[in-house]
Design brief:
Elements lengths: L1 H5 L6 E7 L6 H14 L4 E6 L6 H4 L8 H5 L5 H4 L1 E2 L5 E3 L13 H13 L6 E6 L5 H9 L2 E6 L3 H18 L5 E7 L2 H19 L4 E7 L2 H8 L4 H4 L4 H14 L10 H18 L1
Helix pairs in contact: 2-12, 6-13, 7-13, 8-9
């Protein structure tokens, strides 16, 4: 086991970043958040959990030779496919255009379990960039993580779909703790109104309270960075979005560790539990 190999307790924050719909900037946020955390002194590993439609490697202009499919096929380990991203951020790339990986079967889930059990990389934060929507894979990785960040935007469909994801994770898997990050808001007032709508629905219909993590502003620098295949914090470090993602990274890293559910071993245990739960539910 990871902690036994090192001879010391190693707490790894495992954070799933999810959204009810695509197009809200989730992957771009994960990339810049990872870089901000790395600059703050944390060793960060990104798991591209959109297993059938890889995004992180495209966004960061990487060309990994191997990917998660090689692991699931039993050909390689996680360390074999891991690639270096900007500023020393490590990345576990997904594959693209492989439909069967959009819904992992029990054997594939067990394979991932085995790989994480034997993984001995020096990481402090594991960021899981899930697929958009409410698929089995999204639920699988969200309920396994210690923390869940839901990305929403001011678009009505984004708010509705974010609520749908929260509802599925609560009603089927009893998840009760969600942080909400509003992206592309024109102002603090607009961002808080998006959160208010989500929080009101969650409290009224699910009887749970949501945590407001903050917001990222609408910033043309973000769109421009995508075209250049760089994280916005890298391409435009002085932009408003970059300054705010740096503040958000510090806020997340500064949260009391007492709130965390455990270490990387907890993630592994939860993956096993998630696999069992989904066999009963889907």
């Amino acid at each position: 086991m990871l902690n036994e190999r090192r001879g010391r307790e190693k707490h790894v924050r495992t954070i799933a970043v999810a959204s009810g719909k695509g197009g809200v900037g989730k992957t771009n946020i994960v990339a810049s958040l990872a870089i901000a955390m790395k600059k703050a002194g944390s060793n960060v590993l990104i798991l591209d959990a959109d297993l059938g439609l890889s995004n992180i490697d495209v966004l960061l202009h990487l060309a990994p030779k191997y990917n998660i499919q090689n692991v699931l096929n039993g050909e390689m380990t996680l360390k074999d496919i891991m690639v270096d991203g900007p500023h020393g951020v490590k990345i576990l790339p997904a594959t693209s255009g492989v439909q069967e990986l959009t819904s992992l079967d029990e054997f594939q889930r067990m394979r991932i379990l085995e790989e994480f059990e034997s993984f001995d990389g020096d990481i402090d934060v594991l960021l899981i960039d899930t697929a958009a929507g409410i698929s089995e894979n999204v639920a699988f990785f969200c309920i396994a993580a210690q923390e869940i960040i839901i990305i929403a935007s001011p678009e009505p469909t984004a708010i509705t779909d974010a609520y749908a994801l929260i509802k599925v994770l609560y009603t089927r898997y009893q998840e009760k703790e969600f942080s909400v990050l509003v992206n592309s808001a024109r102002s603090d007032v607009e961002a808080k109104e998006v959160f208010r709508r989500l929080a009101t629905a969650a409290e009224k219909f699910l009887n749970i309270s949501l945590d407001y993590l903050g917001y990222l502003p609408y910033d043309i620098a973000v769109a421009n960075s995508v075209r250049t295949q760089r994280a916005f914090i890298d391409a435009y470090p002085l932009s408003k979005a970059s300054k705010m993602i740096t503040e958000l990274a510090a806020k997340i890293l500064g949260r009391s560790k007492a709130r965390l559910k455990g270490s990387l071993q907890f993630f592994i245990g939860n993956l096993l539990s998630a696999s069992s739960d989904q066999n009963d539910s889907w």
